[in-house]
Amino acid sequence: MTSTMPTLRDTIAKDLRTQITTGHLKPGARLPSEPKLATHYKVSTPTIRQALALLQAEGLIEKTQGKGNFVHTPLSRITYQGGAGIPFAPALQTTIRTTTVRARGHIRTLLKVPSNTAVTEFHCTTYEGETPRSVARIYVPRDLAPAAQLVSPSWPSSRDVGRTETQETVTARLPTSEEATTLRISPTRTVLTITRIALNSAGRVIEAAILALPSDVADAVFTTRPTLKEGETSR
C-alpha cells in the first residue's frame, strides 16, 4: 500500500490552518504578504498562492483585492426558508435595485415568455453589517410589475398576490464571477443556489428568482404539510 507524500502547498496550508484554528491568527488578522510568506517558508510565490487558495476554498481566509489576505471572521449561519425568495432575519439588511431587461436565454426559459419580453429585474443583496450574505435576482414580467409597485414599501411581502404554486430547485455549485464579486468570496468557494419559480392558478409563471448563498454558512429549510384526504380531520 502506497501513501502520498504531502506537497509543499499542503504542508504550508496545514501550518497556516493550525495557526488559524488554534487562535494564533485571530479572525480579521491580516496575513503576511505573499512574498514574505514565500521567504518564511522558503518556497516560490506561486506555491504560496496555491496554499492560500486551499484556505480560501475552505472559507478560512478571504482575499481583498489590493489589501491582502485576511483570516475569515466567523459569521452566524443564515437560513433560507422555503418559498421566501430571499433570506430575512433581524440581523440582515437588504438593498434592492430594479431595472427593466429583455427576457433572453435562461431567464426567458424560466419565465416561459417570448424572447425580448420586457421583464422587471430586482437585484437584492442582503448584508450582515457590511458583509454581504446572499445575492438574488428576481424576475417578474413587466405587465405584472408596473412602475408604481417598484417603490412600494410593502415589497417583497406583496409578491405573494396571485401565487398558487412554488417550485424550487436547490443546487451546490461554484459561484459565477458576478456572485463571487458581490458576495466577496473566492471563486473556488461553493455556493448554495435556489432557483424558484412561482405560478398563478392559470399556470402562468409570475416570478422567477435565482438566489445564491455561501454554502458553508447557509442552510435551506423546507416544511411540508401532508394534504388531508376527503373525510379526514387533523389531530
Q: Helices and strands, in N-to-C order?
A: HHHEEEEHEEHEHEEE
Number of strands: 10
Largest beta-sheet characterization: 6 strands, antiparallel
Q: Estimate what percentage of residues fall within beta strands.
A: 25-35%
Helix content: 10-25%
State the low-pLDDT regions, or none.
Answer: 150-155
Overall mean confidence score, pLDDT: 85
Radius of gyration: 22 Å
Shape: elongated
Judged by helices, strands and strand pairing, the structural class is alpha+beta
Lateral arrangement of strands in the main beta sheet: 4-5-6-9-8-7
Q: What is the distance, rounded to the nearest whole angstrom, between the alpha carbons of the first and last residues?
A: 60 Å
Tally of individual helices: 6
